[in-house]
Amino acid sequence: MSAVRHRLLAAAVSVPVLIGALGACGYGSEAKKDTSAQVAPKGPKTDGLDQIKLGFFGNTTHATPLIGLQSGRFQKELGGTEVKTSLFNAGPAEIEALNSGAIDIGWIGPSPAINGYAKSHGKSLKIISGSASGGVSLVVNPKKVKGLDDLKGKKIATPQLGNTQDVALLNFLSDKGYKVDATTGKGDVTVQRTDNKVTPTVFEQGSIDGAWVPEPTASKLVAAGGKTILDEKKLWKDGKFVITNMIVSQKFLKEHPKAVEAVLRASVKTNAWIRSHPDEAKKDLNAKLAEPDVAGKALPADVLDPAFKNIDITDDPLAATLQEEADHAVKAGLLKKPDLKGIYDLTLLNKVLKSEGKQPVDDAGLGTK
After folding, report:
1. How many CB atoms lie within 10 A of CB 208?
2. Which end of the chain is more exposed for a tag (fewer CB within 10 A), N or C?
3. Among 82, 119, 97, 108, which residue's Cα sits nearest to residue 31?
């Protein structure tokens, strides 16, 4: 959900790294620094830290950090420790920032999290919480594509070679019996890797017949005359699959657990508020997107409303679906089967959930070794 961002294709990476230096749903590859929280630091410093560095994307699948920053919840939970943020448009760039210490905690899609963990042999990061589920659709030009059985010979865009949506489309096409070369995208259906930020333009120009994309790109295509012929939720048990997770540097988690817990507490409280106040949350999200150092422009109602509605906010990282997404990448030939054991550490999340009167979440056997 990642991210998701797509001018960082790494053509020569070796397994077990996913081809294309995976992203989830991003909008290019540049990172913008120091997006400020709305509340000033006040009170004791958490874990003695002067600041904590958070990373995220400027799109609707990252509603948790965007709304949490807009409301000041993260700063309030961290007291005198200043929240510093970096905005990313590429999953690989965010992983690099995490590895270098440029950020401590980030929100990111499943594919770059898998990629980062596998590439570091399980030493770079931990997934510590969920954030969002769903929000991915196959949108087509209804004049060119009549339905799911009318894809042969068509050109369908995905955000990036090997990214989360690319893997999902390749897996779907394989299950439908279509033959497609995963690397070139050529076959019965042409899979054209196209940056999310330009997908609406090439769609309107007729250069593609449809796209398997995350929000808000999917809703932008619908607003431009496209038709949703498949919501990816329909392919998953109970309609749930991870699109955005929270990750943390293992070094930071070990050295500053109180700070991580404070960020998780802010995340859980933000998610609860979003679910109970959707209309206000949507306004906060759009206000944050409109800031010059985020997206720089608010979304129109005919894009914002469906894009926000199509995403499910969750604390649960939906760990079983992460493993399944990795399996899909292996099946497509884009990933050598990774060992994901230990990619999750949900200890602090479950502590926070318990304190908030909520049920614990499960790591699907992929918890800390």
Report:
1. 21
2. C
3. 97
